Amino acid sequence: MYMRSILKLRQAFSVLTKYTKDHEWIKYDTQTKIAKIGITDYAQKELGDIVHVDFQKVGLVFKTHQSLGAIESVKVAADIYAPVAGEIVGINEDLKDSPNLINEKAEETWILQAKLQNESELDTLLDKQSYEKIINK
């Protein structure tokens, strides 16, 4: 039990979460060096009921601000932009059949996984408090 608690605590501190002004989040695991990218709860509320998620392919090397796919809702379609440069190493296959998972838990449902080209790019992104100031204006 004690070791499990230590492992959970270590995992909690190994993940760095940042946000963009375009309403994407990135959760970077400093131990595995893999980032998960998704959209914020604010973004999913603005989009409405999500009906489809379109992905780029695993292996794609992308630049900061490049489109990584699109999210379609009953109201609109919106691009997913790369918060940093990197390479796609995984996509969330569950979203192909259940895109509404983003509506249910946007801050927990990742869209893709990436290996970053430069960790220092994370420093250019917003922390949670700065992001919340933007959406609460």
How would you summarize what this structure contains?
It is built from 5 helices and 9 strands. The protein is α+β, with helices and mostly antiparallel strands and 137 residues long. It has a 6-stranded antiparallel sheet.
Task: Describe how the helices and strands are arranged.
Layout lengths: L1 H13 E5 L4 E6 L4 E6 L1 H7 L2 E6 L5 E2 L4 E7 L3 E5 L4 E6 L2 H4 L3 H4 L7 E5 L11 H8 L2
Antiparallel strand pairs: 1-2, 2-3, 3-9, 4-6, 5-8, 6-7, 8-9
Organism: Paramecium sonneborni
Family: Belongs to the GcvH family.
Cofactor: (R)-lipoate
Encode the helix/strand succession as letters: HEEEHEEEEEHHEH
Global shape: globular
Strand content: 35-45%
The largest sheet is: 6 strands, antiparallel
Structural class: alpha+beta
Mean pLDDT: 92
**Low-pLDDT segments, ≥5 res:** none
Q: Give me the Rg, rounded.
A: 15 Å
How far do the termini sit from each other? 44 Å
Strand order of the largest sheet: 1-2-3-9-8-5
Name the helicity range.
25-40%
Strand elements, count:
9
Total number of helices: 5
Structure description:
This protein has 137 residues and is an alpha+beta fold. The protein is 26% helix and 35% strand. The protein has a 6-stranded antiparallel β-sheet with strand order 1-2-3-9-8-5. The N and C termini lie far apart (44 Å).
